[in-house]
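Notes, Module 5: Reading structure tokens.

Key idea: the token line is not a picture. It is a compressed description, and you learn to read it the same way you learned to read a sequence, by spotting repeated patterns. We will look at two proteins. The first is printed below with its tokens.
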Amino acid sequence: MNNVHIAPGSVGASVGFRAGLATEMAAKILQQDARDKPIKEYLLNTAPPSVREWIHENGVIDDLFHYGFSSRQMRFGEPLNDSAHVLGVCAQLAKAWKGLVRVTVSSNPEPHRVEIFFSATRL
């Protein structure tokens, strides 16, 4: 430790460098958000009408872009009536989003709700 030379102002220089990186990263994230906007709109617009509002209100698409994954529980009647209805709509959604998002339904649904998993796909 005694042989280490630390230049005066090195802490401040490091803080300044880190602030510059944070600013640059924030600008790049904004640019990426602008590039992502048409894709997000496409996903929402191609979703079956019966679940568009549910997808939007539950942040499914935002989660996909932030984490690459989203998992949500859907109670029957909100907006879908029963497990058969959920499976049908999820099949439509999987077809509409093919190559972009994988849509799967829990293999163990509960009596009045089911869990739906969304994961971003990469080619």
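Here is the second protein, with the sequence above and the tokens below, as before.
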Amino acid sequence: MTVTLLREFYRESSPVCATLAHMQKLTIFTDGGARGNPGPSAIGVVIYDEQHNEMSALSETIGIATNNVAEYKAVARALEHVASLVDDTKAVKITLNLDSQLVERQLIGAYKVKDATLKLHCAEVQALMEQYSSVEFVHVKRELNQVADKLVNQALDAM
């Protein structure tokens, strides 16, 4: 009984315990694509809550870009958008799934970012990551990223 009372005391009085008790876990799928490389480009983002319910989706054109730039912009846009959906970004753990192995490997530091333009986009994503409790990147096969891919193609088709 004493342990239970202490847990309740800490849960109610400690911001850290309160945050841990209310930690939100989100799963995000992103994709970016260009028709031509570079060419007209778009991004697709799908955000799911812990129960795998879709919270939000984005389908946006981004102008002329390469495929890799579009992939980075999709990740950045996803992180920006989550911040608009939640009350406390520090209470959010994100698993971000993308089908670009290059971008995933660069973001986790396994590959060096050599291209100057991609360095800027990588730095932008890294800065956006700082506002969350944690961000994990996972490379997924294209067939597991079909919803985000569809959103990219919808935006491109609407151009």
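Summary for the second protein:
- Residues 1-21 have pLDDT under 50 and may be disordered.
- DSSP finds six helices and five strands in the chain.
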